[in-house]
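Hi P.,

Sorry for the delay on this. The queue was packed all week, but I finally got your sequence through. Input first:
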Amino acid sequence: MPTLTARFRRLAPYFRTSRTGLAATIVGATLMALTEPMLADFMKRLLDDGFTGQQIPLGLVPVAIVGLFALRSLAGFLSQYGLAWAGQRAMLRLREAMFTRLMKAKPALFAEQTASGLTNIFVYDIQGGLQILTNAMLTLVRDSLTLVALIAYLLWLNWQLTLFVAVLFPTLAFVMRKLGARLHRLTVETHRAADELAYVVEENVLAWRIVRLQGAEAAQGRRFGARAELLRRLGLKVAVASASMTPVTQMLAAVALSAVITLALWQSQAGGATVGSFVAFISAMLMLVAPLKHLSDVMAPITRGLVAVERGLDLAETAPTEAGGTLRPAQRARGEVVFEGVGLAYHDQAAPALAEVSLTVRAGETVALVGPSGAGKTTLANLLPRFLEPGRGRITLDGVALADWDIEVLRRQFAFVSQDVVLFNDTILANVSLGDMAAGEAATEARVREALAAAALADFVAGLPQGLHTVIGHNGSELSGGQRQRLAIARALFKDAPVLILDEATSALDSESERAVQAALERLMAGRTTLVIAHRLSTIEHADRVVALDAGRVVEQGTHAQLLARGGLYARLHAMQFKT
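Then the structure:
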C-alpha cells in the first residue's frame, strides 16, 4: 500500500491553482494555534499577579479575553473558508480531468464499469471524498500546529515534565499506523460492496418491467439483501476500527496526565514552581488532549476521503486511453473499406466472434450484412469506428490501416445508427447536431431541418410548441419508439459522413414510417458507402450486395436475387421470414 505522503502527493497537482486558499488556511490555523498557549499564559499571569497583591488594570481583563476570542474566531473562519475554497477548485479540476479522460478512454472501460459505478465516482465519491478530506486536513493542520505551540509553551514552562510526556508519542504513532492500515483495507472493501449494491439497484430500475412480468421481485430482493447485508457487516467493521482509535488515545493521555500531575505536585512541594506555573502547565496539558484526540480521530476520515478520491484519480490518470495514428487528411474519405483476414474473440466466449473475415466494400457501395443472431454482423460494424479492435488481421479505409488514422478524424468518416437509440435530455436541435455549430446557428438549424425532413420528422417537430427547441426528456422519453429511431437517423443524416452504418436502423418504425424513411435513406445513400445490418430482409432487397455471415464467417455474398437462387443461408432466412 502506498504511504500516506505518496497518496497526498498524487492529489497535490489539483491544488496548484489553489495556493491562495491554502495560504489563508495556514495563516488562520497558525493564529488559532498561537491563541491556545496564550490562554494558558493568561491564566498564569492572573494567578501569579492578580491574586498576589500586584495590580493588574481590571479594564484590560475583559479587553484581553474578548480580543483573544475575536482573534480565534477570525482565524477559524479564515482557515475554514480558505480550505473550502481550495477544495472546491481542486474538485473542479479533478472532475474536468476525469471527464476528459472518460471521453478518450478505451471502449473496454464501458464494458468493465457500470453506468452507476462511473456516476458514483464523478458525483458522490469526489464530492463526498474531497469534502471529508478537506475537513480532515483542516483538523490535521490546525491541531498539529496547536500541538506544536502547546508543546513549545510546555517546554518553556517546564522542560523536564514535557520530555516525560514526549515519550508517549511513539507509542501513539505506532497504534495509529496499525489501526489506519486496517481501516484503509476495510474502506476499500466497503466502496466495492457499495458499487455492487448500486449495480443491483441500477439493473432493477432498468429492467423493472421484465422483473414484474416474470414475478422475480422476491429473487431480486434476496439478491439485493445479500449485498446490503455485506455492506452492513463491512460498515460495522469500519466503525469498530475507527472507534478503537479514540479510547486508545484517551487512555494514553490519561496515563500521561496522571503521571505529570504527580510529578508537578512533587516539584511544587520542593519549591520549584509557583501556583500560576502549575495551573498553566496543567491547563496546557489538558489543552493537549483535544488536539491529540482530534488527530487520532482524523485518520479515519482521511482514509475514507482518500479512498473515495483515489477512485477518481485512477480514472483521471490511469484509465487506458485510445491510441491512434497521426494521419489527418484534409478531405473526407472516399469510403472504400477492406477487411483482410480479420478475427476477434471475446474474453468470455470460447468461439470467436469473427474468424478470418475478408471483405471489400467499394466506395459508394451499399452492402447488407445478414445472418442469424450472434453471426458477427454488429461486431464487424463496430470494428470500423474502432469501438472494438481486431485480434488479428487488419482493416483499411481508402487503403490506410485504421490504426494509422487519427482517431478523431477516423470517426468523422462514419455515421452510425444503432438499434439501441441513445438520446440526451436536451432539445431536438441539440440531439441532432450534438453541439456542432461550426457553420453558425442559422445554418445549423437549416441543416437540422433538412435532416428531420429526410427522416420523416419535419411535420411532427413543426407541430411542437417550441419546435426545434423542444426538450425531449430522459433518453427521449417524450417521444414514441418510432420517433426516437427517426431522430437517431436524422442525427446520422446531419453528420453527412462518407460511410454510413445502419444497425437495424428501421427496427422500431411502423410500416408507413418505414417506407418514408427507407425512401429517404435510399436517396441519401447514393454515392456513399453504406453498411446495412438487418434482420428484416425486406429492408435490404435493393442493396448492391448482400453478405451472409454465420458463426463469425462470411459464408456467401451476392445480390438479393443471386443468393435466393443459390438456395443457401440467405435463402433459408428469407424463406423463414416470408413463409405463409
